[in-house]
């Protein structure tokens, strides 16, 4: 079943074409890898799916509906949640507050109720607290709950960012280079985490430079180069695709 | 009346402009706002005035005193209010400079009294009369000096090593740091330049209006900030053009619409410009990076 | 924080603390002398801030009056002393100071304030407490409306407007006049009253231009006025801005006759305006052509004490303010053998033909404004104000 | 348990401070306390906008003025009872706040600061010039004495009781807001707008609402001020008043709600205490602002709780935030 579909997506930046007529199908429950050399347009495509950028042309369907007109935050409400390549945490928030923040779209108490601290706010806040602690425990950050997020190690900050995204109960999770800056063992843990998330039925799109990681977890991979899609298929197909090898892997390095 | 109002506006605008480029330099480089620039203008004016009086009318030395004192005050302001908060919220420097501005006014008031001091020389003796339009010598002088200083500033920024470093720093402080530019020194130079221009402006304005008083920098600095924003913070030409046009707009608004609504009109135009182009008419947009 | 800033901060802290201590000790001695032999008066005015220069003139006038009065003593040998509180003529601070003064039962009367705004914001408080509020300078025609404890000392703008329009129309034979005024309660009152009075006399108004208290550039307004070609321009200004306006007008080649309300009557006008103000006619609240004894005496003392030519309106009105209160204190003491706030109010209200400096004599009307306020036209000439004669 | 005991202690201190004016029973003290209360509401609302949401609103005094003029006109000229005018002026100010928010959304950082400063100036100029409506530069005198459900409020003591209630309500409202999901959303906007959007916060909506609610409370305190002094004029709401409010929240701690109460209290009381300094008062006031920002970047409350914290826990929190409040306000403008 198709969860999201990109049709003819293009993006110009002041006359410079960053993406040209990209078609892509993201299957429900899959892990979709997105690779390509630097400047290939991976992050741009990512930002279009998440709603940070507007596409210049084409259409984007999510669960069958066009969502191109929706804002970033509205897409979060539909279940499209992202992380950032250069980790964007809230400097003044505690670890627990970050996860609570993830519940933002799932809670419903309005301003009036919050200001008066009515029953539904009270209930909702204790539900959020409980769920957040539960989630923290699951990702193994419960001992840091009251600490400032910025004092966490780099690997834990990554994990926290993913936990925050998970708290929003995504249907489609967009991971932007989650392995960047992590050491060997942290990458292993990350791999575990991605598998667990996948096991819960969450669809993932993964932009990653770490080829081994992408090849290992993705069941579908799209390769971009110079703003165009040059290949798509399973890890094995991509490995053996002559165009990919020429355009991309031919440099002799899998890393780019 | 139109030519006369434009000349009035240009004179006023020239006085705004020397302060406005200072705002543009400071705010452009640091992305922070200063509220004590008007007081640097004021102490420049006072030190110039009292030097002139003490030396029995030595104008060049008065100007030199204004330059030295205001530049020193500017550098000190940077050390106290800006350097400790680099790369932090612009709120702290804003608050400190508000405090500095209050205390500088109070200090000058204690030292020299509250009364308005005249400039001891008659500066508007020469007049050029063209039909219905009157231009006095001092107006030509004010506009001339202002343009001269702007040209010098332009040359400094575009054709010297320091100017290059200044521009680099205003593009990206961290990058400039990495490139081996001593950003501390560059920012100090920016403050120094901005402040000495403010000091000269103070003496010029004080002499032009023949009025020196502790709060002389308050209203004009707000207008200059508006002018700089109007033209584009971070751009020297923009700030200058903005200040000059603000002066002309004010003059025309007072002349053809209503003096009571002059400032309402000026500020409303500024807000509209900000809404249409938040970086000002000639300013560069800063891209939000995801 | 780097060491430099630390050092500066440390230095500043020491400075702040020591200034605090010094000033504290200095004024501490004042406060210690709580003597039954002293009758305190409150002065709430602009001793700092935008209008501080006018507050400074108050103090000069007060000091000369106190020297005179305390040489003789009031209410059977008691001394008068003034407690100064700065309001910056800010309405909010004026109200705060009022609360402070009314609760201090050693204070028997108050001078408050410089502007109509700050006078009015304190008025309900003085009224409720029954404490005389004598406003030395405000000239708003409705100033005393808030209650029967508020007294005005300045001829109102209605009086001024009558005198100014008579001068412009009857003496100077103007057919067209223009007004340039400070956009505050004061300037607006000048403008409104002059325009009404002049229109009543059938004069054309060639322009009404306002400016803000912070303005120093009036050329835009003046250029506009110039096109209307008025014969007389009326100023609703204080002396600082008044001097600059006349100067800039002359620079622009405006040759009209300037006339101004009494607020420009100050020697500072000449310092700031130079020769440009020559020929300006203003209204003096005091009788320059034929000064009474009181004014002569005050002028002489002022000139010798402050090394100035002559006192301005603000100092003179401050001088009279205290003498009026002292007079009321003496009278109520004679009658009742004691001094009360109420007593001072009653006696002040019934002041009649009191010889003063700012007017030849002062009589309070039923609504506590000057009865028969007189204004004397004077002309500025080479650094002096001379009686104006046609 | 310790937390609970601390809370009770704080409540006792609060009650003690509130009751001080009653013990002294002095009109001047009550007056100062009422003025402090008015500024507490103003600075709390500014703090929610500037401190918690990171919106550089430098023209808060304009909202204060709008509330004051609205309430004065409603009672004085339309004859509405105080309670109705009070609420209506709050709502009206909130409405204006929303209108201001719409263009303000396009501006960031110092540009928003400059824009709101212009708004403050425009408000003052209009209230000076629209004479038929606002009384012009002379202002509006004779604003009716408020009566609350038939009781006339005349004494500073009565005003004090009212304003104390109002301060407590304001505090409770903002405190509830801040600890709810909406409060977290506001703070997330301050910390990182892009990340906030990416987790589902509708930034536009939140900014508008924050403008509205803070303007509402500024309007209420303006209304209270107008009826308390029974006289208002444009100079009450000048730009310098906005700067005063900013100094108050800096003193108490940016992004610290109880801090705003303390900051406002101190900055209303201090100039009164230092009246004896006369000419030096302004100088000291200015230098005090400089010193506070330099030496106590987290404000007084932050500093004190920092001291207490240091005593309680040993070195384990060495890496804990030193400049929590200032540093985190929108590092990218």
Produce the secondary structure layout.
The complex is a heterotetramer of chains A (256), B (290), C (390) and D (333).
Chain B: H1 2-30, H2 37-54, H3 59-82, H4 91-112, E1 127-130, E2 133-136, H5 137-159, H6 161-171, H7 173-178, H8 183-209, H9 218-231, H10 236-257, H11 262-276
Antiparallel strand pairs in B: 1-2
Chain C: H1 3-32, E1 38-45, H2 52-72, E2 79-86, H3 91-103, E3 107-112, H4 116-129, E4 132-135, E5 150-152, H5 157-171, E6 176-182, H6 185-200, E7 204-211, H7 219-228, E8 232-236, H8 239-251, E9 257-260, H9 268-273, E10 281-284, H10 293-306, H11 313-336, H12 341-349, E11 354-355, E12 361-362, E13 376-381, E14 384-387
Parallel strand pairs in C: 1-2, 1-3, 3-4, 4-5, 6-7, 6-8, 8-9, 9-10
Antiparallel strand pairs in C: 10-13, 11-12, 13-14
Helix pairs in contact in C: 2-10, 2-11, 3-4, 5-6, 11-12
Chain D: H1 2-24, H2 27-52, H3 60-76, H4 82-104, H5 109-129, H6 131-134, E1 147-148, E2 151-152, H7 156-179, H8 181-191, H9 193-198, H10 203-229, H11 239-252, H12 257-273, H13 281-295, H14 299-312, H15 324-328
Antiparallel strand pairs in D: 1-2
Helix pairs in contact in D: 2-7, 2-10, 2-11, 2-12, 3-4, 3-5, 3-10, 4-10, 7-8, 8-10, 11-12, 11-14, 12-14
Can you walk through the features of this model?
The complex is a heterotetramer of chains A (256), B (290), C (390) and D (333). Chain A folds into 2 domains: 1-79 and 170-256, P-loop containing nucleotide triphosphate hydrolases (Rossmann fold); 90-168, no CATH class. In chain A, 39% of the residues lie in helices and 24% in strands. Chain A has helices at residues 42-50, 72-78, 95-102, 111-116, 119-139, 154-167, 184-199, 211-217, 235-240, 242-247, and strands spanning 2-13, 16-27, 31-35, 57-62, 65-66, 80-82, 172-176, 203-207, 220-225, 228-233. In chain A, the strands form 2 sheets. Chain A has a 6-stranded mixed beta sheet with strand order 6-7-8-3-9-10, with helices on both faces. In chain A, a hairpin with a 2-residue loop joins strand 9 and strand 10. In chain A, helix 3 (95-102) packs across helix 5 (119-139). The longest helix of chain A has 21 residues, at 119-139. The mean pLDDT of chain B is 89. Chain B has a two-stranded antiparallel sheet. Chain B has a single domain (2-276), classed as Orthogonal Bundle (ABC transporter involved in vitamin B12 uptake, BtuC), CATH 1.10.3470. Chain C has 390 residues and is an alpha/beta fold. Chain C is built from 12 helices and 14 strands. Chain C has helices spanning 3-32, 52-72, 91-103, 116-129, 157-171, 185-200, 219-228, 239-251, 268-273, 293-306, 313-336, 341-349, and strands at 38-45, 79-86, 107-112, 132-135, 150-152, 176-182, 204-211, 232-236, 257-260, 281-284, 354-355, 361-362, 376-381, 384-387. Chain C has a 7-stranded mixed beta sheet with strand order 7-6-8-9-10-13-14, sandwiched between helices. In chain C, strand 6, helix 6 (185-200) and strand 7 form a beta-alpha-beta unit. The longest helix of chain C is centred in the N-terminal third of the chain and has 30 residues, at 3-32. Chain C is globular, with a radius of gyration of 22 Å. Chain C starts with a helix and ends with a strand. Residues 26-33 of chain C have low confidence and may be disordered. Chain D has 333 residues and is mainly alpha-helical. Chain D has 2 domains: 27-296, ABC transporter involved in vitamin B12 uptake, BtuC (Orthogonal Bundle), CATH 1.10.3470; 298-333. Helices cover 74% and strands 1% of the residues of chain D. Chain D contains 15 helices and 2 strands. Chain D has helices at 2-24, 27-52, 60-76, 82-104, 109-129, 131-134, 156-179, 181-191, 193-198, 203-229, 239-252, 257-273, 281-295, 299-312, 324-328, and strands at 147-148, 151-152. A two-stranded antiparallel sheet of chain D has the order 1-2. In chain D, helix 7 crosses helix 8. Chain D is globular. Chains in contact: A-B, A-D, B-C, B-D, C-D. At the A-B interface, loops of A face loops of B.
């Amino acid at each position: 079943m198709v969860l999201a579909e990109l049709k003819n997506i293009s993006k110009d930046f002041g006359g410079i074409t960053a993406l040209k007529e990209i078609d892509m199908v993201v299957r429900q429950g899959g892990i979709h890898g997105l690779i390509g050399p630097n400047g290939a347009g991976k992050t741009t495509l990512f930002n279009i799916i998440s709603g940070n950028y507007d596409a210049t042309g084409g259409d984007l369907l999510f669960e069958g509906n066009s969502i191109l007109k929706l804002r970033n935050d509205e897409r979060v409400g539909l279940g499209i949640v992202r992380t950032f390549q250069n980790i964007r945490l809230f400097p003044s928030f505690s670890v627990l507050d970050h996860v609570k923040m993830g519940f933002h779209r799932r809670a419903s108490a309005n301003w009036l109720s919050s200001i008066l601290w009515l029953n539904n706010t009270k209930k909702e806040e204790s539900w959020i607290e409980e769920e957040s602690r539960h989630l923290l425990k699951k990702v193994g950050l419960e001992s840091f709950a009251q600490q400032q997020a910025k004092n966490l190690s780099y690997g834990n900050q990554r994990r926290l960012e993913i936990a925050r995204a998970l708290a929003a109960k995504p249907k489609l999770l967009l991971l932007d280079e989650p392995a960047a800056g992590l050491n060997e063992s942290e990458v292993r843990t990350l791999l575990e985490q991605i598998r667990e998330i996948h096991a819960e039925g969450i669809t993932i799109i993964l932009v990653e430079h770490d080829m081994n990681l992408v090849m290992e977890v993705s069941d579908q991979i799209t390769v971009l180069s110079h703003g165009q899609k040059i290949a798509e298929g399973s890890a094995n197909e991509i490995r053996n695709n002559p165009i990919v090898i020429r355009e991309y892997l031919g440099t002799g390095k899998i890393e780019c | 009346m139109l030519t006369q109002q434009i000349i009035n506006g240009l004179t006023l605008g020239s006085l705004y402009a020397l302060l406005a480029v200072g705002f543009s330099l400071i705010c452009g480089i640091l992305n922070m706002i200063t509220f004590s620039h008007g007081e640097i203008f004021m102490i420049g004016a006072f030190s110039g005035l009292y030097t002139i009086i003490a030396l029995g009318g030595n104008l060049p030395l008065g100007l030199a005193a204004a330059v030295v004192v205001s530049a020193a005050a500017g550098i000190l302001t940077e050390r106290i209010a800006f350097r400790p908060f680099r790369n932090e919220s612009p709120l702290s420097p804003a608050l400190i400079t508000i405090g500095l501005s209050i205390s500088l006014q109070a200090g000058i008031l204690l030292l020299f009294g509250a009364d308005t001091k005249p400039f001891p020389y008659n500066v508007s003796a020469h007049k050029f009369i063209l039909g219905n339009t009157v231009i006095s010598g001092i107006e030509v002088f004010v506009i001339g000096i202002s343009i001269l200083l702007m040209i010098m500033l332009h040359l400094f920024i575009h054709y010297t090593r320091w100017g290059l470093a200044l521009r680099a720093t205003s593009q990206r402080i961290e990058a400039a740091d990495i490139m081996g530019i001593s950003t501390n020194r560059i920012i100090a130079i920016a403050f120094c330049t901005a402040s000495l221009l403010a000091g000269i402006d103070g003496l010029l304005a004080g002499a032009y209006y023949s009025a020196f008083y502790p709060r002389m920098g308050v209203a004009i600095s707000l207008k200059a900030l508006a002018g700089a924003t109007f033209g584009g913070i971070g751009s020297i030409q923009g700030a200058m053009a903005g200040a000059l046009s603000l002066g002309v707009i004010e003059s025309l608004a007072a002349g053809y619409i209503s003096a009571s609504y002059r400032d309402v009109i000026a500020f409303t135009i500024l807000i509209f410009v900000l809404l249409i182009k938040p970086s000002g008419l000639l300013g560069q947009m800063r891209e939000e990076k995801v | 924080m780097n060491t430099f800033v630390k050092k500066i901060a440390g230095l500043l802290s020491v400075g702040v603390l020591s200034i605090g201590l010094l000033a504290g000790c200095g004024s501490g001695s004042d406060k210690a002398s709580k003597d039954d032999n002293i009758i305190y008066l409150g002065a709430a005015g602009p001793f700092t801030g935008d209008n501080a220069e006018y507050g400074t003139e108050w103090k000069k006038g007060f000091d000369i009056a106190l020297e005179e009065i305390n040489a003789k003593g009031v209410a059977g040998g008691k001394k008068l002393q003034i407690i100064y509180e700065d309001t910056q003529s800010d309405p909010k601070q004026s109200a705060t100071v009022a609360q402070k003064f009314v609760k201090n039962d050693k204070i028997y009367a108050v001078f408050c304030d410089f502007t109509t705004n700050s006078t009015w914001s304190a008025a309900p408080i003085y009224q409720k407490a029954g404490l005389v509020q004598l406003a030395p300078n405000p000239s708003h025609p409705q100033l005393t409306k808030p209650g029967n404890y508020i007294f005005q000392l300045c001829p109102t703008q209605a009086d001024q407007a009558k005198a100014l329009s008579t001068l412009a129309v009857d003496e100077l034979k103007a057919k067209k006049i223009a007004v340039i005024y400070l956009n505050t309660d004061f300037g607006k009152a000048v403008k409104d009253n002059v325009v009404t009075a002049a229109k009543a006399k059938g004069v054309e108004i060639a322009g009404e231009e306002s400016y803000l208290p912070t303005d120093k550039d009036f050329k835009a307004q003046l250029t506009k006025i110039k096109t209307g070609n008025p014969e007389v321009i009326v100023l609703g200004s204080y002396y600082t801005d008044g001097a600059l306006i006349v100067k800039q007008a002359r620079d622009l080649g405006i040759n009209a006759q300037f006339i101004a309300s009494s607020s420009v009557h100050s020697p500072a006008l000449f310092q700031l305006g130079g020769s440009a103000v020559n020929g300006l006619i203003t209204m003096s609240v005091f009788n320059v052509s034929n000064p009474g004894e009181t004014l002569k005496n005050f002028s002489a003392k002022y000139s010798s004490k402050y090394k100035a030519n002559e006192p301005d309106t603000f100092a003179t009105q401050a001088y009279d303010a205290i003498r009026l209160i002292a007079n009321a204190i003496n009278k109520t003491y004679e009658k009742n053998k004691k001094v009360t706030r109420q007593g001072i109010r009653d006696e002040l209200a019934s002041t009649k033909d009191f010889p003063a400096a700012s007017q030849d004599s002062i009589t309070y009307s039923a609504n506590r404004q000057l009865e028969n306020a007189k204004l004397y036209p004077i002309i500025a000439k080479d650094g002096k104000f001379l009686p104006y004669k046609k | 348990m310790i937390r609970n005991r601390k809370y009770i202690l704080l409540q006792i201190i609060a009650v003690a401070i509130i009751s001080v004016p009653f013990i002294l029973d002095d009109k001047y003290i009550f007056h100062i306390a009422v003025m402090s209360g008015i500024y507490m509401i103003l600075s709390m609302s500014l703090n929610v906008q500037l401190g918690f949401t990171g919106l550089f609103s430098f023209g808060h005094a304009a909202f204060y003025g709008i509330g004051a003029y609205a309430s004065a006109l409603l009672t004085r000229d339309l004859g509405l009872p105080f309670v109705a005018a009070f609420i209506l002026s709050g709502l009206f100010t909130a409405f204006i706040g929303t209108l201001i928010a719409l263009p303000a959304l396009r501006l960031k950082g110092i540009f928003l600061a400059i824009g709101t400063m212009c708004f403050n100036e425009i408000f003052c100029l209009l209230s000076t010039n629209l004479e038929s409506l606002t009384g012009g530069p002379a202002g509006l005198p004779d604003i009716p004495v408020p009566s609350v459900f038939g009781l006339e409020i005349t004494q500073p003591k009565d005003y004090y009781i009212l304003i104390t209630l109002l301060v407590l309500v304001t505090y409770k409202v903002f405190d509830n807001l801040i600890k709810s999901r909406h409060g977290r959303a506001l703070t997330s906007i301050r910390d990182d707008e892009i990340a906030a959007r990416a987790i589902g916060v509708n930034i536009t909506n939140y900014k508008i609402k924050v403008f509205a609610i803070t303007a509402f409370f500024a309007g209420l305190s303006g209304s209270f001020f107008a009826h308390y002094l029974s006289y208002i004029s444009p100079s009450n709401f000048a730009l310098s008043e906005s700067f005063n409010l900013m100094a108050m929240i800096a003193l108490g701690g940016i992004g610290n709600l109880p801090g705003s109460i303390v900051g406002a209290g101190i900055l209303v009381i201090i100039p009164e205490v230092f009246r004896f300094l006369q000419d030096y008062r302004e100088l000291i006031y200015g230098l005090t602002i400089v010193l506070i920002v330099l030496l106590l970047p987290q404000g007084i409350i932050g500093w004190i709780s920092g001291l207490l914290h240091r005593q309680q826990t040993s070195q384990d929190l060495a890496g804990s935030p030193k400049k929590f409040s200032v540093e985190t306000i929108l590092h990218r403008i």
